[in-house]
Design goal:
Helices cover about 40% and strands about 15% of the residues. By secondary structure, the protein is of the alpha/beta class. It has a single domain, classed as Arginase, Chain A, CATH 3.40.800. The chain binds zinc ion.
Length: about 350
């Protein structure tokens, strides 16, 4: 097995709000399953501390950091329409950033070959100047920043397979050719961005690749996207590190508002295995996963378990729910358009 680590703290459970889908139960179920299946012994626990305000300012605006800190000190509340912060949330979110940074450093130094940052709150909807979509700080963006700023990487790929477009991550690196942001997401769906024509700006033109997909796409469609877009785009870019924004809400059992995708756990595992192969081909094996969405606790836990198998290099796939039996929406035309836009 490969040398794999995970970054988790029970402190992540202190960010919690009654009846909200992004709740502590998600990560509790993940850790319970990883413990029950001894995966917490096959991988090592990565030590970490909370990111300081100076460290947070490598991605976020100082004003936003201070504002969120004050908001939490005064008891918290709603940050926009759908995103909460409780009194502990600032510290929890700063710890999630610290966990993601520590996991990145361990992989970049070679202490570990691969790692999974099992963090909450999620991050890919967090912009430099505000949080939204259940996200406060953009964990994945910090991973890319560490790889670039501290280790001098010139090409980092963020593959975001969460069912929602990672609007925050896209915005943070929209003009930066050192980060290839590639997102598959349902469209239309929150947050409404991630059209195929959004390809980056300035020096970053071409290093944002959006794959908006209609509702009803399942394993065959995702497999087709991988074959026609993800694999050739990765081969062309030749990333030195692959970071997965790992959300599991494109699964057919997901009940979150307006989500209608049809991927199975077997399908997610195939995507993870492909990224593992690409990391071997271009990155000396270096692969980092950062937890994003997924609101069906059991699907989420088993999805993380399968991704851990991918990271460890185990072939085993666990899929208690099977594949979706009702057919899929065809996407050949969508894929052809995206290939044309990006010259793939
Ligand atoms: Zn999501």
């Amino acid at each position: 097995m490969r040398n794999v680590g995970y970054a988790y703290s029970p402190e992540f459970l202190k960010h919690d709000y009654w009846d909200h889908p992004e709740c502590k139960g998600r990560l509790q179920r993940v850790m319970q399953l990883l413990t029950d299946t001894q995966l917490t012994q096959s991988a090592s626990a990565i030590p970490f501390e909370a990111a300081s305000k100076a460290a947070l300012a490598t991605v976020h605006d100082a004003d936003y950091i201070d504002e969120l800190d004050r908001f939490c000190i005064h008891g918290g509340g709603m940050v926009g329409a759908d995103t909460y912060a409780v009194e502990e949330s600032f510290d929890v979110a700063a710890l999630a950033v610290g966990a993601t940074q520590a996991a990145t450093r361990a992989v970049m130094r070679g202490d570990l070959e691969r790692a999974f940052a099992l963090v909450r709150p999620p991050g890919h909807h967090a912009f430099a100047d505000h949080g939204e979509g259940f996200c406060l700080f953009n964990n994945t963006a910090f991973a890319a920043r560490v790889a670039i700023d501290e280790f001098g990487l010139e090409r980092v790929m963020i593959l975001d397979w969460d069912v929602h477009h990672g609007n925050g991550t896209q915005a943070i690196f929209y003009q930066d050719p050192r980060v290839l942001y590639l997102s598959t997401h349902q469209s239309p769906l929150y947050p409404g961005s991630g059209e195929a024509e959004e390809i980056g700006h300035g020096a970053g033109v071409g290093t944002t690749i959006n794959v908006p997909l209609p509702p009803g796409v399942g394993d065959a469609g995702f497999g087709y996207v991988w074959e026609k877009i993800v694999v050739p785009a990765t081969r062309r870019y030749r990333p030195q590190l692959i970071i997965v924004s790992a959300g599991y809400d494109a699964h057919w059992r997901e009940q979150l508002f307006q989500v209608r995708m049809r991927a199975s756990l077997t399908g997610f595992s195939a995507m993870g295995r492909s990224l593992s192969d690409l990391a071997d081909e271009f990155c000396g094996g270096k692969l980092l996963a950062v937890l994003e969405g997924g609101y069906d606790f059991d699907v989420l836990a088993n999805g993380v378990r399968n991704t851990m198998h991918n990271l460890l290099g185990l072939a085993s796939v666990v899929d208690p729910y099977g594949i979706y039996m009702g057919g899929e929406t065809p996407i050949e035309k969508h894929v052809a358009l995206i290939r044309r836009i990006h010259g793939l």
